[in-house]
Design a protein that fits this description.
Length: about 500
């Protein structure tokens, strides 16, 4: 039995939660992805000098690059462990406290960045990157679930899509903050890395007035009075009257009957192993992991990495190419501002199909025109057009939808484990792309985008045949559609 929230619209509580969770947690998670690249040279220089002063060891050029690779990649690896923690913490301490823990971890990581240069400690830099990786993994695992569970059905996709919007905005804010004209200088790069800690204040200030998930209290904690209290906090006392309470009772019975029903359902909390081995959950778990991992394998970070050299190839200076790359990030952010509206007005399946298919098309075009740009003069501009079109179609589907689709495919019991598996897939694939992309690029050149294109086409096939429409539907109805694995008839 699952608690059905009132079919209401926006309230002050929902708006405040959406705004503060985006500013206080989602943007910091994205910030730490976008901030690290621009000051890379200064960080490497400082790391080499610090190790020489403290340990008397002279690092070679390859040793410095390896150390910086560890600085970058440790957050991706810890993102996997943060995702694992989300499966346990969401049920142990609740959605609201898990959300607070995301903010606390971000703050601790930010403080490590701010003091590492003053203390001449490369260890603090590494610890800070590890902690923000844990925070980011926990954020992508817990926050979409929390937002979807406090939202009424018609706002579920809109509110949950704010996680993806915040991550995108955070990347752009990080890129701007790390510019040499802002804080990305030899004296201030550590301030650039830790700047996001200021945003964490938005996580703490309204926290006492934020609701716990009523569905968590109702089905996991067996606390009907607590669930009703939180519903009234979200929607207002006037909106939740006695008629609503009666609708939630089992067979029109008494509160005692309701408590007994919830005691039976309190055993619905599922371990990660039980979710992984349950054949009725296999297809939705594959969908969640494929979409979350495919979001990274689609090559969005690789496109941003390659775009600077593409802009240089059409005659822009290095500085101008970096600003043009920032412009692409701003386009990415601009399009993402429309995703909450799209999630509220359009079905998930057609948006996912459109996005996956055309991402594959434009990545194929990008690889083709890059390979031949020296032979055909205007192909350099065609490559820029391919990047811009890719960014647009990415943000209407495969960008925002994977973050919350697990909340719409899984019922409350297996949901934390499923969201954790999806987050693990995302961070794991991000690590793989980050590690393999430069090596494959040096061998294949422009054709490095072909595996990304193929991944998008594979996702298109998976969505076409096995992703049910989830918008406006009760989760229990959706879960039944995919319970027979690959024999499910989802259309």
């Amino acid at each position: 039995m699952d608690l059905t929230l009132p079919d209401a619209g926006w309230t002050v509580c929902l708006f405040t939660l959406g705004l503060t969770s985006t500013l206080g947690v989602s943007i910091p998670a994205g910030f730490n992805i976008g901030v690290i690249n621009a000051p890379a040279e200064y960080i490497q220089r400082w790391s080499k000098a610090t190790i020489l002063d403290r340990y008397g060891t002279v690092l070679s050029a390859d040793g410095v690059k390896t150390l910086f690779t560890v600085v970058v990649s440790i957050s991706l690896i810890c993102g996997v462990f943060g995702s694992l923690g989300g499966a346990v913490l969401a049920d142990k301490i609740g959605r609201k406290r898990s959300y607070l823990l995301c903010g606390v971890l971000h703050t601790v990581g930010g403080v490590c960045f701010l003091v590492c240069r003053a203390l001449s400690s490369i260890e603090l830099l590494l610890v800070g990157r590890a902690i923000i990786g844990l925070a980011a993994g926990l954020t992508t695992s817990v926050l979409p679930m929390y937002l979807s569970e406090v939202a009424p059905t018609k706002l579920r996709g809109t509110l949950s899509s704010l996680v993806g919007l915040g991550l995108t905005a955070g990347v752009v804010v990080g890129q701007i903050t790390s510019l040499e004209q802002v804080l990305g200088t030899v004296e201030h790069w550590h301030y650039a890395l830790g700047f996001f800690a200021v945003l964490n204040l938005f996580c703490y200030l309204p926290y006492p007035w934020m609701p716990e998930s009523p569905k968590f209290l109702y089905s996991v904690r067996s606390d009907p009075e607590g669930a009703l209290r939180e519903i009234r906090r979200i929607f207002g006392h006037e909106a939740i009257g006695d008629d609503y309470v009666k609708l939630q009772m089992v067979n029109g019975g008494s509160n005692q009957n309701l408590k007994l029903a919830m005691e039976e359902n309190s055993t619905s909390t599922r371990s990660m192993w039980s979710v992984l081995t349950d054949p009725t959950l296999r297809l939705p778990l594959i969908l969640v992991c494929a979409l979350m991992g495919g979001q990274q394998l689609s090559g969005v970070n690789a496109v941003f990495f390659y775009s600077v050299s593409i802009f240089e190839s059409v005659g822009l200076s290095t500085t101008a190419a970096k600003f043009a790359n920032l412009g692409v990030g701003c386009l990415n952010l601009f399009v993402s501002f429309f995703t909450p509206y799209l999630m509220g007005r359009f079905n998930r399946r057609p948006l996912s199909l459109l996005s996956c298919f055309f991402c594959g098309v434009f990545l194929f075009c990008l690889a083709f025109v890059l390979h031949l740009k020296d032979a055909v003069s205007w192909f350099g501009y065609a490559s820029i057009a391919s990047i811009l079109l890719y960014i647009i179609v990415y943000q209407i589907g495969i960008g925002p939808i994977p973050f919350f689709i697990g909340s719409e495919l899984f019922e409350l019991g297996p949901r934390p484990a499923a969201m954790a598996f999806g987050s693990i897939s995302s961070w794991g694939c991000s690590f793989i792309v980050g590690m393999l992309f430069p090596a494959i690029q040096s061998i294949w050149g422009a054709f490095v985008f072909m595996p990304c294109s193929i991944a998008c086409f594979v996702l298109t096939i998976l969505v076409q045949f096995y992703l049910p429409e989830t918008r406006g539907r009760q989760v229990s109805d959706v879960a039944a559609l995919v319970s027979k694995g690959f024999r499910s008839k989802v259309l």
